[in-house]
Design goal:
The structure holds two protein chains of two kinds. Chain A is α+β, with helices and mostly antiparallel strands. Chain A contains seven helices and nine strands. In chain A, helix 5 crosses helix 6. Chain B is built from two helices and two strands; from the N terminus they run αββα. In chain B, strand 1 and strand 2 form a beta hairpin. Classes of the chains: A alpha+beta, B alpha+beta.
């Protein structure tokens, strides 16, 4: 489907949702996070996405923070912030498992049916992240400069045949492009290793991402016990010293988005 | 008792003692691209993933069946999935 057709289809869908809302007022359940059933309920008056009130739902072995309101499409940044603010509110009393933005159900029964097969897994994850928070590390660099430097290195190491035909030259070009990516990943990995060395003693579960964006060498997510956040901060300040060609920023505490699923649990 | 401080780029990394965690700031600076990128990376790309279904009806007649499989994703993740190379200078503040 072309971009223009997709945009038109989306406008038609949004219009049909508006009409449906006018006749039937379909409400959907927006889910923010998963908790243990006995964890604290939201503060009275807590508002979530689109200003809708947040409430707790206790299911079989799990609790959920949800809000109910008309189905809305689109993902303006403001809705993402509203979602995260609810998750952070939950984090104050007990570490939740954040649910990815956009997870909606037609009612509580549908939500419970969807989560029921995963109750043991999610309870295990809740135990894993209990009393912990996520701290983020972002290593930024000038992506264009790094790519240029990597390209120059690859060119200096490449010997192309003067008699090569167009096919061979094309393959050599593709190989050079792949080699540039390898050089970039190796450089990002080396820098990441240097930053990580400051946290190694804490033996934290970690999720690493290399080259997630053009101007980001790597990101880290650490799972840190609440009582160790002070120590983490000290290690973070040391990690920022004597850095060249990169800038390191830290964020958090976050709810453990990166450790919400077993596949993302990572390890030290 | 808390250990508080401000990082050189203005982010407050504050840790409370035992008890309630003192979170940094209640609002994110919308002009801080790194904060926004961190938010998008987490809220759109991570967290528990469960599919949800919604049927929209008018007068009892099902009109639209939407299978909401959390298709919302960050731009860079979508590009990786589609094997589309990132373009330098992409502005991640536009999320649709």
């Amino acid at each position: 489907m072309t971009g223009a057709r997709f945009a038109r289809a989306r406008r038609l869908l949004n219009k049909s949702v508006e009409y449906a809302s006018a006749f039937n007022g379909p409400l959907v359940l927006h889910v923010y996070c998963v908790r243990f059933p006995d964890d604290a309920a939201p503060d009275p008056g807590l508002l979530g996405v689109d200003g809708l009130p947040v409430r707790a739902v206790r299911g079989e072995g799990l609790g959920f923070w949800v809000s109910e309101g008309p189905l809305t499409m689109g993902t303006p940044v403001e809705r993402l912030r509203e979602h995260d603010l609810v998750v952070r509110s939950a984090l104050r009393s007990a570490t939740p498992l954040p649910v990815r933005f956009g997870t909606r159900f037609r009612d509580v029964a549908a939500m419970e049916a969807a989560f029921r097969p995963r109750i043991p897994e999610l309870r295990e994850q809740l135990e894993r992240v209990r009393d912990s928070v996520e701290m983020g590390v972002r290593i930024s660099w000038n992506g264009a400069e790094q790519r240029e430097a990597a390209g120059a290195l690859v060119r200096s190491q490449t010997r192309s045949s003067p008699t090569a035909g167009p096919g061979r030259r094309y393959l050599e070009q593709r190989r050079a492009e792949a080699r540039v990516e390898e050089v970039l990943r190796a450089r990002a990995s080396e820098i990441l290793e240097g930053i990580e060395s400051h946290f190694r003693q804490m033996q934290l579960p970690v999720v690493r991402t290399l080259l997630p964006e053009p101007n980001t060498a790597a990101t880290l997510a650490h799972l840190v016990h609440r009582r160790e956040v002070g120590s983490y901060r000290q290690a973070a300040l040391r990690a920022r010293e004597n850095l060249r060609e990169v800038a390191v920023s830290f964020s958090g505490p976050w709810a453990p988005y990166s450790f919400a699923a077993p596949a993302d649990a990572g390890g030290a | 008792m808390s250990d508080s401080g401000t990082s050189p780029d203005g982010m407050d990394i504050t840790a409370a003692g035992e008890g309630e965690l003192d979170l940094w700031g209640d609002t994110l600076d919308p002009d801080e691209p790194r904060s926004l990128a961190d938010l998008i990376n987490r809220v759109l790309d991570r967290g528990v993933v469960v599919s949800g279904d919604v049927t929209i009806s008018v007068a009892g007649v099902d009109l639209v069946y939407l299978q909401l499989h959390a298709l919302l994703t960050s731009i860079s993740t979508a590009r990786r999935s589609l094997k589309v190379p990132d373009r330098p200078g992409n502005d991640r503040r536009s999320v649709r």
